[in-house]
Amino acid sequence: MSSRRTPSRGAAYSVPTSPVSGERELIVIAKPEAGLRATREAVASVSGAKVASLNSLLESSGAGMIPIFGNEDRVARAMSAAAAIPSAEGLPDLTSYYRVEAEDQKLDELADKLLKSELVDGAFVKPKMEPPVLFQDAVQPPDPQAAPPVTPAFNARQLYLDAAPGGIDARYAWTVAGGKGQGVRIVDIEGAWRFSHEDLTQNQGGVIGGTQSADIGWRNHGTAVTGEFGGDENAFGITGICSQANVRAISIFGAGQGSAKAISDAANALSPGDIILIELHAPGPRNNFQDIGGQRGFIAMEFWPDNFAAIVFATSVRGVIVVEAGGNGAENLDDPLYNNRPNGFPATWRNPFNLANPQSGAILVGAGAPPPGTHGSNHGADRSRLDFSNYGSRVDVQGWGREVTTTGYGDLQGGGNEDLWYTDVFSGTSSASPIIVGTVGCMQGALRAGGKPLLTPATARNILRNTGSPQQDEPGRPATQRIGNRPNLHQAFDQLGLRPPKTLIKDVADKGIHKEKEVKEKDKDAKDLKDHVKDHKDKEKEVKEKDKDAKDLKDHVKDHKDKEKEVKEKDKDIKDTKEKEIKEKDKDIIKDTKEKETKEKDKDIIKDTKEKEIKEKDKDLKDIHEISPQAGGTGAGTSSGGDLESRVASLEQTVGTLTHFIGGELRPDLQSSALNQEADLMALSQQLEKQASDAKAAKDNKDVEKLREA
User: Fold this and answer.
1) Buried-state track 105-135, b at ≥16 Cβ within 10 A, e below 16
2) Which tens digits make up the pLDDT trace of 128-187?
3) How open is the CA angle 288-293-298, to the nearest 5 degrees?
């Protein structure tokens, strides 16, 4: 749904210099020793001071003078009791502050004449006060399209609720007991409100002082402001930062009313630790307290002495935390200009923007840019000073000064019923200050629920200055132009020792209420805080980084398990390989050993066989020797016997060598030898061959049997 509309929907829509009504105030500060007691009818003195000339001046001007802070005697008693409070030291004399009611055109002349009275210490005219909103956004006419039967939920557009640094991490605060502002009371000070709005019905107490302006500009403004911190918690529209806090309002308009009286009335209606919001600014000394258009030179309300006294009363005497819009005048509050005492201010006045001077104790708020891309717009670096915001060492903290989604105005959802109007473009230190109110409301509610001491005005200001997401540079608007940090409720809660119940942490993550990681064990809290602070320095990445961290952690665990599995598998493979190698080696060794043993056995068998063959052969030869004489003896017995024996001996040598290895068929030369010529030798040769052949056959058979047995 688009929230950006051009002003023209038919006829042109002009932007007035100041689209809201207002009134000037003539303030008189009497000398304490005068002891004045005033009513609308006359002025008296309990110290015997001469008041006739003062009464004459007032009567001739048709004016009346009334005490700002109430009946002087009652205020004096309250101040006497407050004197025992250490923080109230230096409290201005509230019995001396008066407002003169007269026609506006007479105020300046009256102020000059009153300054000449010996009873008066100061008299000045306060300029008209305005809401510190950017009028080019605030004056857009509502969308004429009728609202739907049921308003959709706009929570997703309330990015200022999200985690730091883009938002203030209100969604985290809501997970802590009391973190929605339970038990906290807030009073908004400005002009008008729409407490009948559909999203402002649960914890609102209405207007408790002054008279509401009929001006729709004031009404839209008050409705938008209260919606930011007090919007109802429901299924439609928006949700306030501290939605469970009680919200009321006091108007600056009405008889005898004004900004200082509204502040003191609010302080008296509240208790220590409760909150006042001042949603006003006015033209300062830069342009001689004149509105020259565009809110240039507008400053915070504490600059004027009566407002300063009222704020000091609220913070120092009542213990109420005051949040004050810093103003949209684009002013450097450290400029020496602000050290100059304006005409009509009392001689005791000191520049409240100078930290060396007495301080009001209020939390002063500047306007910072939202993250680029919010609602499709870019106003500069996230948390950089917006060009209209006042700045300086006095400014404590910043809130979103653009693109705030809340109740009122009707540009996001319009129609004919104001009770259904919503905006996407609330702006200025007007939109920034309610964010700080909501932040403090969350802290106070959680502290109360946890049974811890509540923040004081001083400790609240200190924690906002020293925690949060740092201001960033933007060309032409460096961070040295101080508007302070953007709050970070997660970090502030950690510093205050406030944490959600462990049983809620998972629910928060599941519902998307809080996008950070699940809260770790207590011994990891310090590291988480350090990491969280470091994350503040990253631009526009926090939410994505947190989601990515959770995924990375899961992936890391998975990778670790995969690596362990891989290592185990590698160890198993190495083990199996080694076992296999050992088995193979054992097998080879066994095989080699068996082969070696077999060869050794074969070698032994062959050796034994050969030895046996040799023995057999030797035996055969011996047998031949034994047979040869016998054969010779059976011959004819001729005289040639000697020659025969020589020849037989020669044959024995030949036959012994060849007979066993050469078959007869391969020895034709032997058969055709000279033995054929001699019958006796022939017969002997045949006999020898037969014996040799039989011996060989017998031996071969025996060798085969032995080999089989082996």
Assistant:
1) eebeebbebbeebebbbbbbbbbbbbbbbbb
2) 999 999 977 666 778 889 999 999 999 999 999 999 999 999 999 999 999 999 999 999
3) 55
Q: Whole-angstrom Cα distance, residue 672 to residue 677?
A: 9
Give the predicted TM-score (pTM) of the model: 0.71
Contact 455, 447 (CB under 8 A): yes
677, pLDDT greater than 60: no
* Residues near 145 by beta carbon (within 8 Å), at least 6 away in sequence: 414, 415
Is the separation of the CB atoms in 320 and 457 below 8 Å? yes
Residue type, 563: K
CA proximity to 158, closest of 264, 240, 275: 240
Tokens of residue 246, six digits: 């009680």
Q: Say yes or no to pLDDT of 1 above 70.
A: no
* Strands of 246-251's sheet in order across: 204-209, 246-251, 185-190, 275-278, 321-325, 363-368, 397-400
Residue type, 227: G
Name residue, tokens 């949060």.
Answer: 468
Q: Per this entry, what is the length of the chain?
A: 710
Burial 503-528 (b: 16+ CB within 10 A, else e): ebbeebbeeeebbbbebeeeeeeeeb
> Residue 249, Cβ neighbours under 10 Å: how many?
28
Query: What is the H or E stretch that residue 613 is in?
Result: helix 542-633
Q: What is the pLDDT of residue 524?
A: 55
Enumerate the domain spans of the chain: 25-126, 136-540, 552-709
Which segments of 83-148 does DSSP mark as H helices, in order?
Answer: 107-115, 135-138
Closest CA to 130 of 346, 349, 294, 341: 294
Strand partners, 323: 277, 363
The residues facing 299 across adjacent strands are: 282
CA dihedral 538, 540, 542, 547 (to 10 degrees): -130
Which positions ≥6 away from 390 have C-beta within 8 Å?
298, 299, 300, 326, 327, 328, 329, 330, 331, 332, 333, 366, 429
- Three-point CA angle 539, 428, 142, nearest 5°: 110
CATH class in words for 136-540: alpha beta
**pLDDT-derived band of residue 549, with 50, 70 and 90 as boundaries?**
low
Residues 432, 409: Cα–Cα separation, whole Å: 17
pLDDT, tens only, 425-447 = 999 999 999 999 999 999 999 99
Q: What is the pLDDT of residue 573?
A: 74
Specify the pLDDT at position 529: 47
Residue 640's pLDDT is what?
Answer: 42
Pairing of strands 282-283, 275-278: unpaired
Long-range contacts of 305-308 (CB under 8 A, 24+ apart): 305/27, 305/29, 305/92, 305/97, 305/122, 305/124, 305/345, 305/346, 305/349, 306/27, 306/29, 306/68, 306/97, 306/126, 306/258, 306/259, 306/260, 307/259, 307/260, 307/263, 308/92, 308/352, 308/360
pLDDT at 60: 94
Lowest mean pLDDT among 263-277, 344-358, 500-514: 500-514
pLDDT at res. 633: 41
Q: First-to-last CA distance in the chain?
A: 104
Selection from 398, 393, 525, 381 nearest residue 464 by Cα:
398
Q: What tokens appear for 131 in the block?
A: 């809401």
- The C-alpha atoms of residue 270 and residue 252 are separated, in whole angstroms, by 17
Q: What is the pLDDT of residues 457-485, one digit of tens each?
A: 999 999 999 999 999 999 999 999 999 99
For the CA atoms of 331, 334, 335, 337, what is the dihedral angle to 10 degrees? 100
- Non-local CB neighbours of 277 within 8 Å, separated by 6+ positions: 186, 187, 188, 189, 225, 322, 323, 324, 433, 434, 437
Residue 262 has pLDDT above 80, yes or no: yes
